[in-house]
Amino acid sequence: DRRREFKLQELQKLASQYAILFVEETHDDGARRESAYSLLHATHKMWFSATDAGGHAGGVAIFLRRSFATRFERFVSSVLVPGRIIEVTVVGLQGRLHVGCVHICPQDSLDDQSSMLASLRDSCASVVSTLVLFAGDMNFVTEAEDRVRMDDGSAVRVVTVVGRQWSERFRELTEVHRPE
Questions:
Q1: CA distance 93 to 78
Q2: 163, 130 contact by CB (below 8 A)
Q3: DSSP conformational letter for 156
Q4: Which helix (H) or strand (E) holds 104?
Q5: At 147, which helix (H) or strand (E)?
Q6: Residue 21: is its pLDDT beyond 70?
Q7: Cβ contacts of residue 103 below 8 Å, gap of 6+?
Q8: Of 85, 57, 63, which Cα lies nearest the Cα of 75?
Q9: Burial of residue 42 (number of CB atoms within 10 Å: 0-12, 13-18, 19+)
Q10: Number of Cβ atoms within 10 Å of the Cβ of 102
């Protein structure tokens, strides 16, 4: 369909501009993964994880430009939370780089959100002397007005303790979308 084609075109455009690309909400059904793979396999190494758990289809992906990847000798990937958190450690003569892609859904329970953040914390703590870079969509809601419904503009009234803690501890890493 047109939306899918548009997303693939955007993916290709972004992949041509950046050495590392993190993609959340891939909602991978196999066909999407194959489309991205066939589009970028010549220029990028790719890692995917998808899930349908709990009725919430989701997925995350990391794309690493092959010309950048030649600087490294070994790639170790793992899925911390299926469809929600993946990570790749790349090892080379000049050091190590640990990258990860995170997607936390607003529908995830507080326990699930806390568990995902704990696995992320533990993963980062385990990679000593390594540059660590995680990117993603946390979907933390700290104020009821921070999220609006696209169909009618009304506020989404879901405020999470985890979101408030994140914004208090990492204010500089918190971005809140504001409709124009």
A1: 22
A2: no
A3: P
A4: none
A5: none
A6: yes
A7: 24, 25, 58, 59, 60, 83, 84, 85, 136, 137, 139
A8: 63
A9: exposed
A10: 22
Looking up tokens 């700290």 gives 142
User: How far is residue 166's CA from residue 162's CA, in Å, rounded to a whole number?
Assistant: 6
> Helix, strand or coil for residue 174?
coil
Strand partners, 86: 79, 101
What single-letter amino acid sits at 44?
H
Q: What average pLDDT does this structure show over 145-163? A: 63
Q: What does the block give as tokens for 67?
A: 């010309």
Check residue 87 and give left, alpha or beta (phi > 0: left; psi -120 to 50: alpha).
beta
Are 132 and 98 spatial neighbours (Cβ–Cβ below 8 Å)? yes
Q: 65-94, pLDDT tens digit by residue?
A: 989 888 899 999 999 988 889 999 988 888
DSSP 155: B
Q: Which two tokens stand for residue 125?
A: 């703590």
| Alpha-carbon span 50 to 88, nearest angstrom | 16
Cα 154 to Cα 139, 146, 157, 160, 177, distances in angstroms: 17, 11, 9, 18, 14
